[in-house]
Amino acid sequence: MPFFDWLKITPLSSITPIHARLEPNWADWRRVRKVLVPDHVYSWLCETGSLTARVKAACGNRCFEVRLLQQGWGRPLYSEGRVLKMRRGESAVVREVELLCDGIPWVFARTLIPASSLRGPVRRLTLLGCKPLGAVLFADPMVERGPMQIAHLSPRHPLFCSAAARLERVPLDIWGRRTVYFLAGHPLLVNELFLPDIPERIR
């Protein structure tokens, strides 16, 4: 199947540009006061290694799974477009997944790959299916990691709504982080939101 035809299978019609006031305030993780963040969530937020590897370790002998929720062409949220330095009107491949342990979602992840980044080795990232993106990024020596930002999300934020849409109990808030990665010089953005059932991290 041709590359761009495959991407059209699951268009994200619900992803539309919105004003910045409907988004959380993203801040450098080193500037976020630890006292404001639940202890067990803070340890996940500040993880500098592969989050996928840490989730698998915490899951232990239970069933770890990556569930692909949707993938296709979409518009970035306002702050996503800004941090990726996307051109006005530029689309991106948007991939949303959950990381689960024994069928319980622990992490919601939303990745954006701008159309201008879909060159060379970046194209293979659109063909992962249910394979974890983190394992690919951390295994590739060509990948460079940008600064990590943290945010506190409430139900009024569209990213919160996407993360909580399939939860049995909608939480009062969610903490998340985002990082820009560069593969062969081309940027992509990974948002990672920690859901209520995320446990204490183990090494």
Fold and architecture overview:
A hairpin with a 2-residue loop joins β3 and β4. The protein has one domain (3-11, 25-194): Chorismate lyase-like (Chorismate lyase). The chain has a seven-stranded antiparallel beta sheet, sandwiched between helices. The chain has six helices and seven strands, in the order αβααβαββαβαββ. It is α+β, with helices and mostly antiparallel strands and 203 residues long. It has helices at 3-7, 39-45, 51-59, 78-83, 133-139, 158-164; strands at 27-28, 64-74, 92-101, 104-114, 143-153, 174-183, 186-194. The model is unreliable at 1-18 (pLDDT under 50).
Write the layout of secondary structure elements.
Blueprint: H1 3-7, E1 27-28, H2 39-45, H3 51-59, E2 64-74, H4 78-83, E3 92-101, E4 104-114, H5 133-139, E5 143-153, H6 158-164, E6 174-183, E7 186-194
Antiparallel strand pairs: 1-5, 2-3, 3-4, 4-7, 5-6, 6-7
